[in-house]
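Hi, here's the filled form for the chain we discussed.

Project: internal
Contact: R.S.
Residues: 227
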Amino acid sequence: MGAAKSKRVPRAIREQQMMDAAVRTFARRGYRAASMDEIAELAGVSKPLVYLYLNSKEDLFSAVIRRESAALVAAVTAAVEAEAAVDRQLWSGLTGFFAHTAEHPDGWAVLHQQARAQGEPFAAEVAAMRAEIVRFVTGLIAVAAQEAGCAGELADREVAGLAHALVGAAESLADWANAGTADGTSASRPSGERGRPTAREAAATLMNFAWAGLDRLMGGERWSAGD
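And the returned structure, exactly as it came back:
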């Protein structure tokens, strides 16, 4: 009995194992098709234990979304070079974003594909995470406008719109960069030349697309439809 007790897995670790299995199952099967039986089998536990620890399938999905959201925000925050110039802060944050989504394609698939498709309350969990990232990017663009001396020319609404556009572009680029990785084929598509872009390459792509335009905007240039 003593030997058996010593091998018992602590509840916190067991819960994480179950959630790891749930992330993989939800990402690859979808929320509707995923079953608690499949999650329990992948985690190496009984289905009643999954229910005991994590309640219903809905509660488990919500817990997975919260965990993956927190991990993504933490990765972006940790990557930002806080004392650097604004463009460097944005680039380092984007690098952290693309690195995390590449390293955790199942988690990204849950957040960006599955959770949003299921409606409330799941979509609200993802929206809260996205809003936190948008606030960070909004702050960077506002600082850049102040440093360029054009803060008065860029209304708060326009700054917020630019931030939303940049975050949306990052999400789309992450989907493109990670295409095929949530179905177990990532090993056949290595990062780098002729494979998936590295996190630094993806971040540079977005900086070339977005920041170059922002830099011109800060310099007073504006596009006109010619009407």
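Let me know if anything looks off before we file it.
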